[in-house]
Amino acid sequence: MTDNSIHIIGGGLAGCEAAWVAANTGTAVTLHEMRPVVGTDAHQTDKLAELVCSNSFRSDDWECNAVGLLHAEMRAMGSLIMACGDASKTPAGGALAVDRDGFADMVTDRIAAHPLIKIERGEIGAPLADWRNVVVATGPLTSPALAAWVQNLTGEDELSFFDAIAPIVHFDSIDLSVAWKQSRYDKEGPGGEAAAYINCPLNREQYETFIDALLAGPKTEFKNWEHVPYFDGCLPMEVMAARGRDTPRYGPLKPVGLTNAHHPDERPHAVVQLRQDNALGTLWNMVGFQTKLKHAAQTDIFRTIPGLERAVFARLGGLHRNTFLNSPKVLDARLRLRADPRLRFAGQITGVEGYVESAAIGLLAGRFAAAEADGREPVAPPATTALGALLGHITGGHVEGAKRSFQPMNINYGLLPPMDPPKRAEGGKPFARGERGRAKKRLMSVRALADLDAWLTEAKADR
């Protein structure tokens, strides 16, 4: 007999989002998660939607930040991930960060309580032949058996990259007589908190010593993995430093927008930031400090940072292997595998990068799968929306040519159709420096939300 329910393989953010949106249309869903029967190198629990890297969903500014716009669009579509993120948020300046355990608990409880979702634990090496509607949302840590099965179907060579995990520090081991709390430019976050980061200042000599140690420190080697390129949005700190000694100072260690509360007249050469990692505020993660340094070296090197001399680490950094499809070649415009259209793919394995982007593609895959189960033609969101632009990137918006031209990407305004920026600010005054660009982004965001609303209204009328 043919199984007409939707089978979703993978209980991460994308899989849970797909299951939620599909079940809410009235379609029965089976969510397959291999943990704890089979573990991974990065997960520590059996919870659904466990966050294994940062606890941040990044900027929540819908007007002038593309990921903030994506947040707003997903909220408008009833996103489970955004609802649980909002309910478990922690202070993070202008970003939306969550208590990672509270967030995973909430997602797990809501999925388990849904009457149309059944959770099955165990590894799926290949979808069964009678599963006619499948979403593969296994993410970057796809099991070897399933990865081999997909690779055999697609005929593509393996495409993979490294993702890295940042260390987490116990708050009471941070020296706040050296470090201080402040968000960059004192920007308030979703909860009104304007001092959401702990800042550790380095002068030039301290920075140079730190970079020397970072470059010289022993690294974990991966032998046959070493040919795989890193994703630029999640570079290990030592790889960043190897690209140029000042590269970290123009990235996560940039000293701008901050004033040392202990020495206001001294401008730091670089600043290491830590962001709250749990609701209690007892754990803080080192922003941008993904690393493949060996654990003993991490402890020694990171304790050279002013304010972290006596740091106690709840978790040290690490690396795990991520695998993604050459999606523009192997997937169609509705995320179906060209070689086997009963299969859809969702999440990071499709070539999006970031928690929110992964969940967003899960939301679309679940919506498309539910439409198909209901006998309707799936309709994609407009290309003028963040959701539509992200979908367009992974299903065709790449540079033609070499096989490796398609690379993982975060949502950004460059993926949306352009708009001409306004010539003048409100009242006809000239724009201040940088404000014209913000005004253009706001126009694109307003257009996106209006087009999304029209699309959702039309979709409801067609049902």
Task: Report on the architecture of this protein.
The protein is of the alpha+beta class. It has 2 domains: 6-159 and 324-415, 3-Layer(bba) Sandwich (FAD/NAD(P)-binding domain); 164-321, Elongation Factor Tu (Ef-tu), domain 3 (Beta Barrel). The chain has 12 helices and 17 strands. It has helices spanning 13-23, 66-76, 80-87, 100-113, 144-154, 204-216, 237-242, 295-302, 327-330, 355-373, 386-394, 435-462; strands at residues 6-9, 29-33, 56-59, 89-90, 95-98, 117-121, 134-136, 160-165, 168-170, 180-181, 197-202, 270-276, 283-286, 313-315, 318-323, 336-337, 340-345. Strands 6-2-1-7-17-16 form a 6-stranded mixed sheet, with helices on one face. α2 runs parallel beside α12 and α3 (80-87) crosses α4 (100-113).
Write a compact overview of the structure shown.
This protein is of the alpha+beta class and 463 residues long. 31% of the residues lie in helices and 16% in strands.
Give the class from helix and strand content and strand pairing: alpha+beta
Strand order across the largest sheet:
6-2-1-7-17-16
Task: Profile the largest sheet.
Answer: 6 strands, mixed
- Strand share of the residues? 15-25%
Arithmetic mean of pLDDT: 88
CATH architecture of the largest domain: 3-Layer(bba) Sandwich
The end-to-end distance, rounded to whole angstroms, is 28 Å
Q: Just give the CATH class of the largest domain.
A: Alpha Beta
Topology order in helix (H) and strand (E) letters: EHEEHHEEHEEHEEEEHHEEHEEHEEHHH
CATH topology of the largest domain: FAD/NAD(P)-binding domain
| Secondary structure: number of strands | 17
